């Protein structure tokens, strides 16, 4: 399964000083570890919201709001896409994200929607087939 | 929740097991023993971590526990009356210094992971054994997961792994990088195993089972790991490129009823752009490293031609023909020749393709091959020879063993073409 990992920041911290040399080194090593583990699919940092814009749909109107978004409590500073087996695996990797400069922080992990979750796509025939296969699997490997 | 902690422990195992097994292998110089010690640690983790919590440095915990298990083995052996019962390899355990265990994970483990791959894919093992052992040692999969992937009973897989380890011990396969003169063959075996795992999942993705696409992702992960530990091997990048590009088409290979969708009919808007990007990047690396094109590189180049074409009509068939020419020259096989005929049919017209097919059909082994017959049928249809085409589709339908494919061919035998 693929997950998106959103790195959070706040209006106060997003324009803070550049991370330390050590922080950058440790982050690079972390990314390399993920690449070598075969888990890294994509990832990048976002420039501060002062360089961005929002497009908002409100009461039938489309509005454009320029950054910085000082009113927002949370902003996105970066993202990763990881290919993992389970949410738990993503959480374990996320726990290893280096926090060199010891600041408060948060990442949010969101599994990307799988095709099977698009309800309509699974026709009754296909659902039946899927159920049949799961039944066969149960037969081969009964779980307690 | 107890099931949550269990899943978390499994996730930690999946993350750490290969490194731990590789590090222990370097210490005990025996992959089978290393795997047993690592497994014992895993069992201990399953027993203790629900109470004590996940340790901050799980890999270090697993190594320490493995060391203790090793010491237990030595002690048990020492108390045995019959000294001959002491296994030679266990006797050597006593010679490993304590600090070596503690520092084993500090040293970079990439080379050891590569050695582990070479050993798991050793030619002395059967292909099935190589696959099971690779998924176990390098995929961190449980026996149950491997069994599910290959639709085999769990005890069969368990036995396969036990026998594989026994064979490696009997043949005294060393925990070392293969000597230079064996390197090419040994690397080929690793690539072959990974690609076999991928194909096992890939063919499953065309309608037989959702469950087995996990295998493709295991193979992709193994391919990425291999590239990480053997970055200068062009074939590793070539294989990865091929797998990433093929994986990009997953979502479009099956329709809502579970029937396979052929390449011309796939909705390319739903091809995964990230896989394509990664595949093309791996292809670039392979090209820059390769002194001459290898099997995986050429296949990846062909897959790239498809990936780059926004529509089926925009496909660069001349380039694909050129690539098949090269494949046919370097790695001739009936399958390559047949695919080449298809490409020629697209590039130079169906009659040109049919000429090649007729030449191939002269081979006794291919004459009644359902793939060849369906290719001929397809080309006849494109050439406007509809009566003949329908007859050939009907023939191919009779010969294929795949249910979904039979239905497809029968449909084409009946319908007038679009």
Give a short summary of the structure.
Chain A is of the alpha+beta class and 144 residues long. Helices cover 32% and strands 28% of the residues of chain A. Chain A folds into two domains: 2-112, Dimeric alpha+beta barrel (Alpha-Beta Plaits, 2-Layer Sandwich), CATH 3.30.70; 115-144, no CATH class.
Helix vs. strand class of chain A: alpha+beta
- In oligomeric terms, what are we looking at? heterodimer
Strand content of chain B: under 5%
Q: Which outline of chain B best applies?
A: elongated
How many DSSP H or I helices of chain B? 21
Structural class of chain B: mainly alpha
Tally of extended strands of chain B? 0
CATH architect. name of the largest domain in chain A: 2-Layer Sandwich
Total strands of chain A: 6
User: How do the strands line up in the largest sheet of chain A?
Assistant: 2-5-1-6
Level of helix content of chain B?
over 70%
Residue-averaged pLDDT of chain A:
85
What pattern of helices and strands is seen along the backbone of chain B? HHHHHHHHHHHHHHHHHHHHH
List keywords for this structure.
heterodimer; A: about 140 residues; alpha+beta; Alpha-Beta Plaits; 2 domains; four-stranded antiparallel beta sheet; two-stranded antiparallel sheet; 4 helices; flat; B: about 425 residues; mainly alpha; Serine Threonine Protein Phosphatase 5, Tetratricopeptide repeat; 21 helices; elongated
Explained architecture:
The complex is a heterodimer of chains A (144) and B (418). A 4-stranded antiparallel β-sheet of chain A has the order 2-5-1-6. A two-stranded antiparallel sheet of chain A has the order 3-4. Chain A has helices spanning 11-14, 21-36, 87-95, 124-140, and strands at residues 2-9, 40-45, 53-58, 61-66, 75-83, 107-111. Chain A contains 4 helices and 6 strands; from the N terminus they run E-H-H-E-E-E-E-H-E-H. In chain A, 32% of the residues lie in helices and 28% in strands. Residues 117-122 of chain A have low confidence and may be disordered. By secondary structure, chain A is of the alpha+beta class. With 418 residues, chain B is mostly helical. Chains A and B meet through helix 3 and helix 4 of A and helix 1, helix 8 and helix 11 of B.
């Amino acid at each position: 399964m693929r997950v998106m990992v959103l790195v959070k920041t706040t209006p106060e911290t997003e324009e803070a000083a550049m991370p330390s040399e050590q922080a950058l080194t440790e982050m690079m090593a972390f990314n390399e570890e993920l690449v070598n583990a075969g888990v890294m699919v994509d990832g990048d940092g976002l420039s501060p919201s002062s360089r961005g814009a929002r497009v908002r749909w409100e009461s039938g109107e489309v509005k454009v709001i320029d950054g910085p978004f000082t009113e927002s409590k949370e902003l996105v500073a970066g993202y990763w896409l990881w290919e993992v087996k389970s949410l738990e695996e993503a959480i374990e990797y996320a726990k290893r994200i280096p926090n060199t400069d010891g600041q408060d922080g948060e990442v949010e992990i969101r599994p990307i929607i799988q095709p099977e979750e698009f309800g309509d796509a699974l026709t009754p025939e296909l659902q039946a087939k899927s159920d049949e296969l799961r039944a066969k699997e149960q037969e081969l490997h009964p779980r307690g | 929740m107890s099931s949550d902690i269990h899943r978390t422990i499994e996730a930690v195992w999946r993350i750490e097991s290969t490194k731990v097994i590789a590090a222990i292998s370097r210490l005990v110089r025996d992959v089978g023993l290393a795997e047993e010690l690592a497994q014992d640690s895993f069992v201990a983790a399953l027993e203790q971590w629900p109470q004590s919590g996940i340790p901050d440095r799980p890999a270090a915990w697993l190594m320490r526990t493995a060391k203790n298990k090793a010491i237990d083995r030595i002690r048990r052996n020492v108390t045995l009356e019959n000294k001959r019962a002491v296994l030679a390899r266990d006797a050597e355990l006593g010679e490993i210094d304590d600090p070596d265990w503690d520092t084993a994970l500090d040293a970079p483990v990439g080379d050891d992971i590569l050695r582990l791959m070479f050993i798991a894919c050793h030619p002395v093992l059967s292909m099935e054994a190589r696959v099971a052992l690779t998924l176990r040692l390098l995929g961190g999969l449980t026996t149950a997961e491997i069994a599910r992937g290959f639709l085999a009973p769990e005890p069969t897989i368990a036995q396969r792994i036990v026998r594989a380890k026994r064979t490696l011990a009997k043949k005294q396969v060393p925990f070392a990088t293969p000597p230079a003169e064996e390197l090419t063959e040994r690397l080929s075996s690793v690539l072959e195993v990974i690609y076999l795992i991928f194909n096992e999942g890939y063919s499953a993705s065309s309608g037989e089972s959702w469950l087995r696409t996990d295998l493709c992702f295991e193979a992709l992960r193994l391919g990425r790991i291999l590239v990480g530990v053997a970055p200068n091997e062009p074939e590793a990048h070539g294989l990865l490129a091929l797998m990433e590009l093929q994986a990009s088409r997953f979502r479009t290979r099956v329709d809502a009823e579970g029937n396979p969708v052929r390449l011309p009919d796939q909705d390319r808007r739903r091809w995964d752009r990230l896989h394509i990007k990664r595949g093309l990047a791996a292809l670039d690396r392979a090209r820059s490293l390769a002194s001459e094109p290898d099997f995986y590189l050429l296949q990846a180049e062909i897959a790239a031609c498809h990936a780059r074409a926004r529509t089926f009509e925009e496909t660069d068939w001349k380039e694909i023909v050129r690539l098949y020419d090269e494949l046919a020259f370097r790695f001739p096989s009936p399958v390559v020749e047949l695919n080449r005929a298809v490409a020629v049919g697209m590039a130079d017209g169906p009659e040109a393709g049919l000429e090649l097919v007729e030449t191939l059909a002269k081979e006794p082994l291919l004459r009644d091959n359902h793939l060849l017959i369906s290719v001929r049928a397809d080309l006849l249809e494109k050439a406007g020879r509809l009566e003949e085409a329908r007859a050939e589709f009907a023939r191919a339908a009779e010969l294929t063993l795949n249910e979904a494919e039979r239905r497809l061919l029968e449909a084409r035998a009946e319908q007038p073409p679009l």
